[in-house]
Amino acid sequence: MLAAMLSVQFGGAFAATLIPEIGPVGTVALRLTIATIILVPFARPGLHDRRTGRLHTRSDWLRVVAFAATLGVMNTSFYFSLRTLPIGVAVTIEFIGPMTMAALGSRSWRDGLAVLLAGAGVVGVSGALDADWSQVSLPGIGFALGAGAAWALYAKASQAVGARWESLRGLTWAMMICSVVILPFGIAEAGTQLIRPRHLLVGAVVALMSSALPYSLEMYALRRLSTKAYGILTGGEPAVAALAGLLVLGQGLHPLQIAGMICVISASVLILGRDSHHHPTRAAAT
């Protein structure tokens, strides 16, 4: 999970350099298509389950399609948010999705406080407190929240696929489906810009760091973790994203935005403390 976190956030920072040139949909299309090409030789996806020799069922394929849908919505929404938000801000807002998933269903006072802290954190990182509302990107915040909702569903879908498909075969099928659907829209948006050597090179780096490597690592991790534990472990994502934004894009954050980020991370720590106290072996049991 830690390796996936570092990989995906620095990959996202490199992706932000592509968005002004080929657009968010073009960036998603290039990233997923190249990542699929990278994964296919390793995963060798087929129609049969190698463990049983039987064809995968209709239920198996529905899980893959649902997984593909979450991948497409999550990535496209996030890249649209990066057009107007620094990556650290976008990821902090997006993180509300998995954090809410981690707190869902509990009536603990810790979770109530965590929700309040997270809400305050989102307000802080959005810039709403120290900026004119005309300068606050409401569409960017909306896209980041949409990406967060898809992120929470992604964790569930990844677990469902990992339970029925061996190795990375289900993930590879999902990425193939997603690429086939999104690529025509990417071509319509960016045209021949997609195949410029520089765009292909950066796209390959983004595909490896933001898709092929982290999704593969998370697929294995989610076979051993509950979705609640996954939501908690992603608590460091905003800080890693802010570091990537600073080192790759030169994006600094204001003190109020840093305070907001600390609030969101603290919210995840509160949930971790409650979850560890009451369910010390849950992740291992899952």
From TrEMBL:
It is a multi-pass membrane protein. Its main location: membrane. Residues 1-126, 139-272 form the EamA domain. GO terms for cellular component: membrane. Signal peptide: none annotated. The chain crosses the membrane at residues 25-43, 64-81, 87-105, 112-129, 135-155, 167-187, 199-217, 229-250, 256-273. InterPro entries: AA-Vitamin_Transporters, EamA_dom, EmrE-like. Keywords: Membrane, Transmembrane, Transmembrane helix. Pfam families: EamA. It is found in: Membrane. Belongs to the EamA transporter family. This is Threonine/homoserine exporter RhtA. It comes from Acidipropionibacterium virtanenii.
